[in-house]
């Protein structure tokens, strides 16, 4: 039986079990991600990080999760209350919904029922993930708009513009994968990678996806909507208590989703890595083992998210938009044209597609790398004659400053006769004299 | 059993049932969480709490209905997004059936990408992609 048929035969209780498992997975992964992020970033920054709750502070996330519902919920008077209430829900639901098409493993037996470790394998699985990540934007925009406050409004807009910009790059980078698979079903995409994972067959797609998934989830170095120094907290500034927690949850679940999706598209999904897959007639690709490979790969990407946050400074907004629209999108289009042409070429003449693709991929990576080095058009600087800039690039103070005359400039101070402080009995003695 | 039957009757829509179940569960969880906050948490009145947060200064006046004004650059980005999203949507079906379409599909998709590329170059040239 095929994957889709097995899943179609799932009884309702099994669907419910899987759905609840996915909900729990989202919540638990969020808590684990938060504590890991705080611990790892702390280590990168040479500070202890959370170390109070539980052994070495590892229970901090649980404490935070319990704390949040018991916080006061504050809704500003200027808020549009209905939309304000709906916004966190709108951003949470799609985040969880995208989980349902991710294949976590092959055929297993749950309580005697043969099934696949995946909630549903739709013929349009890839579109479901993209649609969910687009729908999440509504929650962000509406949250910013409904708060009735300037900072959330700006944060929400920025966030939306950012997500939709990188959505394009993300969607286009998937096209090459679909070309190779000939299917939009996530299960088929994993199966098609049995002969070779796409991350080296389609290097440019993989790299563009990796960049755009960081932009898509609003994470450092692209965390402009939450730029604390500019926008306080971004779109959720006016949110507190559980509604804030929902936004937080949605953000982290989205990170898990894009990582899991990346694993599915480019890293062979739940398949065992190369040396392990040779052991014992593909033994490690059966049963429950694939869960291990899947989560190892996914957590690798999640670690990269943390790593980026600990390493890179935040980008400026115009640089960020330029990267999305002027580098990732055209590079993507050129790459797609290349792949399409090469595929047609290969169908006509028998040439190993792998060699062509790897060579072409390397060339394109070099080109993308070079495009970063292109100098920006220098904006005409009107202030250039006011502050002279030395060779080092740092502005120096003007050198024609005349040091003002000390006596003339200083206000004449009245010289008071110094008097000894009169304290206690000694003071009386002095006054008598 | 319910699923098996429904997939027999309407094989197209039956497979979407797990998605509906997931949606219902996620919605139930989200609504429950959102309602839980005000029930469990404390509520101590303070006039300052209900003002828009602007780092402690007096909140700037807001329009009576909805939030403030939206910079026009965001509309431009949204329209560009629609342009390219449609391109993406057209590329997906092509990608699925590229091998079937063969050379005809190849030429067609090149023409299509060239058309969108022309619009893209125009927007780039006019500074639509610059962010100020």
From TrEMBL, chain A:
Its EC number is 7.1.1.-. It is a multi-pass membrane protein. Keywords: Cell membrane, Membrane, NAD, Oxidoreductase, Quinone, Translocase, Transmembrane, Transmembrane helix, Ubiquinone. GO terms for molecular function: NADH dehydrogenase activity; oxidoreductase activity, acting on NAD(P)H, quinone or similar compound as acceptor; quinone binding. This is NADH-quinone oxidoreductase subunit H. Belongs to the complex I subunit 1 family. It is found in: Cell membrane; Membrane. The chain crosses the membrane at residues 12-36, 83-104, 124-145, 166-185, 197-215, 244-267, 287-307, 327-345, 351-374. The keyword NADP does not apply. It catalyses: a quinone + NADH + 5 H(+)(in) = a quinol + NAD(+) + 4 H(+)(out). InterPro entries: NADH_UbQ_OxRdtase_su1/FPO, NADH_UbQ_OxRdtase_su1_CS. Pfam families: NADHdh. NDH-1 is composed of 14 different subunits. Subunits NuoA, H, J, K, L, M, N constitute the membrane sector of the complex. NDH-1 shuttles electrons from NADH, via FMN and iron-sulfur (Fe-S) centers, to quinones in the respiratory chain. The immediate electron acceptor for the enzyme in this species is believed to be ubiquinone. Couples the redox reaction to proton translocation (for every two electrons transferred, four hydrogen ions are translocated across the cytoplasmic membrane), and thus conserves the redox energy in a proton gradient. This subunit may bind ubiquinone. GO terms for cellular component: plasma membrane. GO terms for biological process: aerobic respiration. Residues 380-433 are annotated as: Disordered. It comes from Actinokineospora spheciospongiae.
């Amino acid at each position: 039986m095929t994957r889709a048929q097995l899943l179609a035969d799932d009884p309702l209780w099994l669907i419910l079990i899987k759905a609840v498992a996915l909900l729990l997975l989202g919540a638990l992964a969020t808590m684990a991600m938060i504590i890991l992020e705080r611990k790892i970033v702390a280590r990168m920054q040479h500070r202890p990080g959370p170390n109070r709750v539980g052994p070495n502070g590892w229970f901090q996330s649980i404490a935070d999760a319990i704390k949040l519902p018991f916080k006061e919920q504050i809704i500003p008077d200027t808020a549009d209350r209905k939309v304000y209430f709906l916004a966190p829900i709108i951003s949470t639901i799609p985040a969880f919904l995208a989980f349902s098409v991710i294949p976590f493993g092959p055929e297993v037996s749950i309580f005697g029922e043969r099934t696949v470790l995946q909630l549903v394998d739709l013929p349009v699985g890839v579109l479901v993930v993209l649609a969910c990540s687009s729908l999440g934007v509504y929650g962000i925009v509406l949250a910013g708009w409904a708060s009735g406050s300037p900072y959330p409004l700006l944060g929400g807009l920025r966030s939306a513009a950012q997500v939709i910009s990188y959505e394009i790059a993300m969607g286009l980078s998937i096209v090459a994968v679909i070309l190779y698979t000939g299917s939009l079903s996530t299960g088929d995409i994993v199966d098609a990678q049995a002969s070779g994972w796409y991350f080296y067959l389609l290097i440019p797609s993989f790299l563009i996806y990796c960049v755009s998934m960081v932009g898509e989830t609003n994470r450092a170095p692209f965390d402009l909507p939450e730029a604390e120094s500019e926008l306080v907290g971004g779109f959720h500034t006016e949110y507190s208590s559980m509604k804030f927690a929902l936004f937080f949850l949605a953000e982290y679940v989205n990170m898990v989703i894009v990582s899991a999706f990346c694993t599915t598209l480019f890293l062979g999904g739940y398949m065992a890595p190369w040396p392990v897959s040779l052991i014992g007639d593909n033994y490690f690709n059966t049963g429950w083992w694939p869960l291990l490979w899947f989560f190892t790969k996914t957590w690798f990407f999640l670690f990269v998210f943390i790593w980026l946050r600990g390493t890179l400074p935040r980008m400026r907004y115009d640089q960020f938009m330029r990267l999305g629209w002027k580098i990732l999108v055209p590079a993507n289009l050129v790459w797609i044209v290349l792949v399409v042409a090469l595929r047609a070429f290969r169908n006509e003449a028998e040439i190993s597609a792998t060699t062509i693709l790897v060579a072409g991929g390397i060339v394109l990576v070099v080109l993308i790398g070079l495009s970063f080095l292109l100098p920006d058009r220098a904006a005409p600087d009107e202030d250039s004659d006011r502050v002279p800039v030395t060779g080092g690039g740092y502005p120096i103070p003007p050198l024609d400053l005349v040091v003002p005359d000390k006596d003339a400039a200083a206000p004449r101070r009245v010289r008071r006769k110094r008097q000894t402080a009169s304290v206690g009995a000694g003071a009386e003695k002095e006054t008598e004299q | 059993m319910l699923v098996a039957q429904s997939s027999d009757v309407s094989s197209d829509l039956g497979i979407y049932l797990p998605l509906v179940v997931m949606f219902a569960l996620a919605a139930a969880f989200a609504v429950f969480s959102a309602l839980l906050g005000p029930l469990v948490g404390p509520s101590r009145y303070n006039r300052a709490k209900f003002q828009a947060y602007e780092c402690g200064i007096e909140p700037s006046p807001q329009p009576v209905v909805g939030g403030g004004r939206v910079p026009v650059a965001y509309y431009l980005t949204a329209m560009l997004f629609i342009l390219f999203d449609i391109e993406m949507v057209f590329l997906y079906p092509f990608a699925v059936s590229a091998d079937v379409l063969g050379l005809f599909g190849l030429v067609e998709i090149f023409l299509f990408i060239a058309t969108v590329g022309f619009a893209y170059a125009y927007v780039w040239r006019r500074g639509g992609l610059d962010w100020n």
